[in-house]
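PROTEIN SPECIFICATION:
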Amino acid sequence: MKAQANLEKSINNSPLFSIDRAANGELFVIEERRLLADLAELMSIIRHDFNETGYEIICTAKACIKAYKTDAGVFLNYFNSALKKNLKKEKAKEEISNKRSGIKVDQKTDLAIRHIIKYARSCGEDFRNSGFADKAAEALNIPLAQVHEAIAVNNNTAVASGNKTIINKEGKDDELFDFIKKGLE
């Protein structure tokens, strides 16, 4: 096992970045695998969540190797920036999937929902308020009808948790799933 400083030096000074992929394809693949192995070892030292994010790390590394130009600066800086962005994106997808319990929404609507919610948080407003849609449509340059549709889709695809309280027939607070269970008995 190499030390962290040695791994960083080995990655940033990899001969991979000076190999012509078209002329020396086999050598490129060999050096790429060496770089990926060193990068995986470095990430296993640095990141405590490497076992959970290892796949995303390697996919990001392969994409970075493909797109990296030596005049872009130090490879590890380039890689770390791309990794941070990709892990944020994966985390957001996971949160949305958990919130919607697998209900799929088209990409355009999902993007609109995320922008609307982000705008609402930045303003400190609740996106469910009636006047908010007008503000969001103007600020985000989205048609008002699309804002209303995105908010409706978000509300309709969010899964209610068992902690959701409702008012029962006696006028008392009751949890949603307990209320449903009592109705089935």
